[in-house]
Amino acid sequence: MEIRETFIPRVQFTRSFTVLYVWLAYLLSMALSYSLIMLYFPNLNQWIKYFLINGIWALFIYFWNVPFRIPFLMGLFPAIAPLAYYIFWEMEATQHPGYRDPLPGVVSGFLIAAWSLRKIFYWFRSWKTIRDAAAKYPIHFKPARQGILMALVTFVWMPLALAGLFSPLGHIVARPEELEFSDLLAVLMALGFILWDSIAEQRKMLHEERYRLNVRFLRGGLWRWVRFPELTGLLGLALSLWPLTGDPLETLVLPAAGWLAFYLYLRLWEVPLRDAYWLHLRPEYRAYMQKRPPLVPLPWLNL
Question: What is the number of domains present in the chain?
Answer without folding.
Answer: 1
